[in-house]
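Me: I hope this is not a bother. Any chance you could explain this protein sequence and its structure tokens? It all follows right here:
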Amino acid sequence: MTEKKSIAVLPGDGIGPEVVHAALEAIDALHLPLDLRFGDIGWECWREEGDPVPERTWKLLEETDACLLGAITSKPLREAEAELAEPLRGTGRRFVSPVVQLRQRLGLYANVRPVSDLENGAFDFAVIRENTEGLYAGLDFHGLDDALWNAVRHHPNAAASGPDATSVTLRLQTRFGMDRLLRFGFEYARAHGHRLLTLVDKPNVLRNSSNFLRERLELMAGEYPEIETEVLNVDAVALWMVRRPERFGVLVAENMFGDILSDLGAGVMGGLGLAPSGNIGDHGAYFEPVHGSAPGMAGQGRANPMAMLLTIGQLLDHLGMPLPAGQLREAVRTVVRARSTVTYDLGGSATTAQAAAAVADALRPAGSPQEVSA
């Protein structure tokens, strides 16, 4: 008997609670050994408590095996301050995105975005993005001190502007960070039967840092002789993801390049309403659909639950439940292919609950009783 796994379920805000509720009702048909423990995260926590990830949620995350996240709203600095409860305003509280907090505090360095053709099965690959360094490491400066100014002062545009009117963003890449990402990519390729790993960067322009990446790749590749490797420019990969997505297996990229390519992958699949993701480290993980909180759609029953359902499939794989994960993905494919009970973004008129209920029906064995969808 499969050991019961505990899941911290954080619905969040916007459309997050809707898609979480609908998806969890749908997977009841699988009778999974899961202990679902609900917690708080997101914009209301920020407004009422001054922290979008309260301490009780961190405690819940420590006590559970993995996390399922709905969606979270983020707003700019001024709006965030203005929406705080009156007693909290002017107290120095700073909104830090919950997903950034989760990734940093839990050490979730690999963002995994599966990209598959749900209708025809023509392609199935994954974009694995580094989460902790690269151009998103936070080394972003405007108004330069002497050290940074000396590094850029010879550029003619910097010389014409001066240090106070010049900005610099540093791309941080470390052996520690890239080695663990590359190893994760190789292990993912091996576990999922992919025979090609593509390192995506810009070696013809970022010559030194890209060459460093290539050297680390070449050193590690010897441990995985069954997996072919290549190094490609990010712009070329973007083109081929659109024109020939079937050529790829696992794409590994630094933070910004991976961010861009993973959203492109969602477009190749058919839209954000179909795109799942996982953020994984050595000792923790959380899984969320890519579509975000879409606060303007909240409460309308129009949100596509398929991304959340596929995200749950990814979570089940991570927890060592590949059979129900595969069943769930196949049920989603069945509904998406039929196109008779899908939401507006896929050309249908079904509500969130109706689309999820169609997946639940596809999960039930033939001849079993089916509930009438609302």
Notes: The longest strand covers residues 5-12.
